[in-house]
Amino acid sequence: MINVHLKKLRRRVEISAEEEQAIRGVVAETRSVRADQILIRSGEELSNALILFEGWLARSKDLPGGDRQVTGLHIAGDFADLHGFTLKRLDHDVVALSDCVVGVVPHDRLQDITERHPRLARVYWYSTNVDAAINRELALSLGQRSALSRMAHLFCELYLRLTVVGLARLDGYDFPLTQRELAECLGLTLVHANRTIQELRRRSLVELENRQLTILDRSGLEGIAEFDPSYLYL
């Protein structure tokens, strides 16, 4: 299962046979989790990190009134909480958006691998920097892009990220998020998110049904999003 993680790493850097063996050795166990399960709660003390092997996870923060903002999406191949290795707790929840399989990586194994393989320490530092770049792009969407542009941008970003790990089709990909979860990603009301999807459909850019996103006009979608993938460092 860790092959999807290695595939993601190798899209950006070379991984030697010795380094691959070390990476394969960090996972202590795999766990299956159900959709909507909270894997990590804000503030709890952490001694393990999680690699996502199958499914989709979200980082999210809740307001006292119950409103939720999704601050990041993770797909197969991602380290969901690598920054928790140094912070030892998170300021947000990590929740399963679909049924998932995760690999549990004890922090002491992470420390060992980074001490024995300093180049891998730089590889994973690089990975957290890319996560930060994705988060900045989301902040730009929430602050400055129109609803139509920010939804189109998210769809374009996910297409590239899923392509890297072999999980996108030529014309789209599995999209397990509900409309409410999509709205929480984009800072929209449920009604506004629905109207935005309908507008993208009206323009013959995408179809979203049965948890499948079909991209009908990729160049048109990228145009609406003003999509520049350089922040993904591919």
Question: What's a quick, concise take on this entry?
Answer:
This protein is an alpha+beta fold.
Q: What average pLDDT do the residues reach?
A: 96
Give the number of domains: 2
Question: Could you give the count of β-strands?
Answer: 11
Q: What is the percent of helical residues? A: 40-55%
**H/E element order:** HHEEEEEHEEHHHEEHHEEH
Shape: globular
Q: What is the CATH topology of the largest domain? A: Jelly Rolls
Radius of gyration: 18 Å
Characteristic key phrases:
single chain; 234 residues; alpha+beta; Jelly Rolls; Arc Repressor Mutant, subunit A; 2 domains; 4-stranded antiparallel sheet; 9 helices; globular
Detailed description of the structure:
The longest helix has 27 residues, at 118-144. The chain has helices spanning 3-10, 17-24, 84-87, 107-116, 118-144, 147-164, 179-186, 190-202, 218-225, and strands at residues 29-33, 38-40, 48-54, 57-62, 68-74, 93-96, 100-106, 168-169, 172-174, 206-209, 212-215. A hairpin with a 2-residue loop joins strand 10 and strand 11. Strands 2-6-4-5 form a four-stranded antiparallel sheet. The chain starts with a helix and ends in a 9-residue tail after the last helix. It has two domains: 3-121, Jelly Rolls, CATH 2.60.120.10; 145-232, Winged helix-like DNA-binding domain superfamily/Winged helix DNA-binding domain (Arc Repressor Mutant, subunit A). It is of the alpha+beta class and 234 residues long. It is built from nine helices and eleven strands. The radius of gyration is 18 Å and the shape is globular. Helix 4 crosses helix 5 (118-144).
